[in-house]
Amino acid sequence: xxxxxxxxxxxxxxxxxxxxxxxxxxxxxxxxxxxxxxxxxxxxxxxxxxxxxxxxxxxxxxxxxxxxxxxxxxxxxxxxxxxxxxxxxxxxxxxxxxxxxxxxxxxxxxxxxxxxxxxxxxxxxxxxxxxxxxxxxxxxxxxxxxxxxxxxxxxxxxxxxxxxxxxxxxxxxxxxxxxxxxxxxxxxxxxxxxxxxxxxxxxxxxxxxxxxxxxxxxxxxxxxxxxxxxxxxxxxxxxxxxxxxxxxxxx
Length: 251
Fold this sequence. Notes:
Blueprint: H1 9-69, E1 75-83, E2 97-106, E3 111-116, E4 127-132, E5 137-142, E6 147-152, H2 161-172, E7 179-193, H3 201-207, E8 212-217, E9 231-237, E10 243-250
Parallel strand pairs: 1-7, 6-8, 7-10
Antiparallel strand pairs: 1-2, 2-3, 3-4, 4-5, 5-6, 7-8, 9-10
């Protein structure tokens, strides 16, 4: 038996269309592939830029956190023992009193900040003291009164920052506990300071918002007139190998 197959006349017409479509797709494939590669490269570049910005933010944020929340300077703690007898030649053995304080010494800023806590064995006031070696000023903040007092820096009593750091470094070990003497100085209030912004940033931070007065050292050889009517407070502190009693008097 012979099988006769009939071919549709439309089949031959569809084949050229199919071939043309395949050729069209073939012609467009390189362009599509090129755009696909470009889009992939663009996405990778954007991803890398995003990661770079994130890393930069982490670094900057970490630096800010360290700057504002980590301690900037080492705080030294030290203690001395002193005696109050003015005549050191007496045969009586002196009775030594301890005094402790903390010091934030910033050599780069040429500043020494002394924190005098409430004393255990004397009637002196707790205080915060700033010694500004650039402006040659000292500011006392009497924490009991809440008043600030400013006076020219006495470099014969206060060691420079480097020497002060060496002193407190020895005191901090606990093995160096000097038995020393007391030096007295007396100050008198001369005028009130209305604007503390001209006294430097460190004294400004100490005294802003508080009554601030200018002090003058009183010559011990002057008369004693009107001293009974004065209101005086003392601050005992050390910024040298001896203890200083600063007496501040105001009429």
